[in-house]
Specification:
- The chain contains twelve helices and three strands; from the N terminus they run αβααββααααααααα.
- It is mostly helical.
- The protein has a three-stranded antiparallel beta sheet with strand order 1-3-2.
- The relative contact order is 0.14.
Length: 227
C-alpha cells in the first residue's frame, strides 16, 4: 500500500451542509477505511493537515472525534495511532452487514420509489469514476454514501446508523491491489448492476448481486495481517 497517496481535501458532496470539522472527519475516516492510514502507525495533526490541504486545528479536532469512535488512539506529544482490527472482527462485521443489508436491499426491490433509486445513479457513477482514477479515498467516500443512502430508503434510521458504524470500523486493505490489477472498476460497476436489478423490481437478481458484492468486502478486508 502506498502510504502517502495524495488525498482529496474534503468529501465533495453535501459539504455545504456540514461543519468543517465534520467534513475533515469524513475525509479521515475514508482514508482510514481505504487503508491510506495504516493500523499501528502514528500520525500527527500537522502531517495529516498537509496531506489534506487544511489547517492542523480541524484535523486535531476530527481525530479526537475518531478517537471517541475507537478508530484511533491519542498518543501524547506525538499524534494519533490507528487502532488494529482483528480477522475475527472483520468476519463479524461482514456477517452482521450481510444479515442487515441483504434482506433490506432485497425488500427495496418492491418498496422503493424508482425516482429515489434513480437518484443514486450519479453516486454509483462517482464510485466507478473514482475506481478508474485509482482514487481510493473518493471511492470509499462515494461507496459509503451510496450504501447508506440506499439503506435509508427502507425508512429505518437506526439500521442505517448500525451499518454506518460497521463501515467506519472496516479496513479495505485490498483496494490498492485491485487498482494495480485493474479490477477495482469491475467491482465498482456492481453498484450500477444493483441499481438496475432494483429498478427492474427483480428481487432474485437483487439478492444475487448484493450477496456477491458483500462477499467481495471480506476479501478486500483481507491483508497479509488479516487472512
Amino acid at each position: 500500500m502506498t502510504a502517502h497517496r495524495p488525498a482529496p481535501a474534503l468529501p465533495r458532496v453535501g459539504a455545504e451542509k456540514r461543519s468543517h470539522r465534520e467534513r475533515v472527519a469524513d475525509a479521515l475516516r475514508a482514508a482510514l477505511i481505504a487503508g491510506e492510514l495504516r493500523e499501528g502507525e502514528v500520525y500527527s495533526a500537522p502531517g495529516l493537515a498537509g496531506r489534506f490541504g487544511v489547517s492542523a486545528t480541524p484535523v486535531r479536532e476530527a481525530m479526537l472525534d475518531l478517537a471517541k469512535e475507537g478508530l484511533v488512539d491519542a498518543v501524547p506529544n506525538k499524534g494519533f495511532r490507528v487502532t488494529a482490527v482483528s480477522a475475527q472482527q472483520l468476519d463479524e462485521y461482514t456477517h452482521v452487514r450481510a444479515l442487515i443489508e441483504i434482506p433490506t436491499t432485497v425488500g427495496l426491490a418492491t418498496t422503493a420509489d424508482p425516482a429515489d433509486l434513480a437518484a443514486l445513479r450519479p453516486v454509483a457513477r462517482e464510485i466507478v469514476d473514482a475506481a478508474a482514477a485509482g482514487d481510493l479515498i473518493a471511492y470509499v467516500e462515494a461507496d459509503i454514501r451510496f450504501h447508506l443512502g440506499l439503506l435509508a430508503l427502507a425508512g429505518n434510521d437506526h439500521l442505517v446508523a448500525v451499518v454506518g458504524d460497521l463501515r467506519k470500523r472496516a479496513r479495505l486493505y485490498g483496494l490498492d491491489a485491485l487498482v494495480r490489477a485493474g479490477r477495482l472498476t469491475a467491482s465498482a460497476e456492481e453498484h450500477l448492476e444493483l441499481l438496475d436489478a432494483l429498478l427492474s423490481r427483480d428481487a432474485q437478481a437483487t439478492h444475487t448481486v448484493m450477496t456477491r458484492h458483500l462477499s467481495h468486502v471480506r476479501g478486500l478486508w483481507a491483508s497479509p495481517d488479516h487472512p
